[in-house]
Amino acid sequence: MAPLKEESRSVIMRMRALLLRRRSLVQCALDSICWALALEIALLLRFDLQPSQADVRGLVTLLPLAIAAQVAAGLVAGLYTGRWRFGSFDEVAGLARAAVLATGLLFVVNLVVGPLLVPRSVPLAGGFAALVLMGGVRYGFRLANERDVRPGGDGCERLVVYGAGEGAAQVITAMLRDRSSPYLPVALLDDDRAKRNLRILGVPVVGTRTGMAAAAARF
Questions:
Q1: CB count, 10 Å around CB of 187?
Q2: Torsion sign over Cα 213, 156, 175, 149
Q3: What does the pLDDT read at residue 72?
Q4: What's the rounded Cα separation, in Å, for the pair 36 and 129?
Q5: What distance lies between CA 49 and its chain's CA centroid?
Q6: Which fold has domain 157-218?
Q7: Closest to 179 measured CA to CA, from 12, 23, 4
Q8: Which string of b and e fits 55-81 if b means at least 16 CB within 10 Å?
Q9: Which residues fall within 8 angstroms of residue 219, CB to CB, at 6 or more apart?
Q10: Which uninterrupted H or E stretch holds 200?
């Protein structure tokens, strides 16, 4: 299991290095793949998953336009200019703006061109699906990155943190996103009963201050 984890971490590190060196190109390539899959899915759904009824010639013509529209919209929205960290919430907001703009452009082009390249619903459904796929890719990268930088636990001092408010969230985030951190938060205590089911980056609230000794013994 350990060699598998090390190999997985090595793959993530190589992907991160590639992303840093060729960030804009990698983002454009990933988003282009997402658009291709999304439009194909939308076209198949339009014809009730019957590929024989779908005219793929229009899709082949529309796909380069979709990619060009996404790249242009992404540049306008700052998505491919290194303005935000890859997978950050700020970038996802920019991604949504770019996807909406690209979908609108694609819908208009499809209407103007005669006859229609694809049914009218395909650009709209495809744009929504592309947004979900592009956001999913970024969310997956974010999860993998956070898991990779999380302290391993070996030699770390395990902490029970009192308080589950904004300050605690910032402290826990800082510790869990530094692989060299000597501290590993494992549990939270908070007197607010409304937070009894809360988790911050996977660290659970396990009780109130009256249960501090029990939490320390357990965790």
A1: 18
A2: negative
A3: 92
A4: 10
A5: 28
A6: Rossmann fold (3.40.50)
A7: 12
A8: eeebbeebbebbbebbbebbeebebbe
A9: 158, 160, 186, 187, 206
A10: strand 199-200
d(C-alpha 186, C-alpha 215), whole Å: 10
pLDDT of residue 36: 93
Closest CA to 43 of 155, 130, 154: 130
Contact 167, 192 (CB under 8 A): no
Distance of CA 127 to the CA centre of its chain: 17
pLDDT higher at 55 or 161:
161
Tokens 């659970």 map to which residue? Answer: 204
Give the pairing of strands 199-200 and 203-207: antiparallel
Q: How far apart are CA 120 and CA 107, in angstroms?
A: 7
47: which 2 tokens? Answer: 């014809």
Q: Where in the chain is the domain with CATH 3.40.50.720?
A: 157-218
Q: Mean pLDDT check: name the lowest of 51-55, 89-93, 175-179.
A: 51-55
Q: How far apart are CA 169 and CA 61, in angstroms?
A: 48
Q: What is the pLDDT of residue 13?
A: 65
- What are the tokens at 39? 């439009």
Torsion angle defined by CA atoms of residues 15, 17, 22 and 27, in that order, rounded to the nearest 10 degrees: 40
Give the pLDDT confidence of 48-78 residue by residue, as tens digits. 777 666 677 888 888 999 999 999 999 888 8
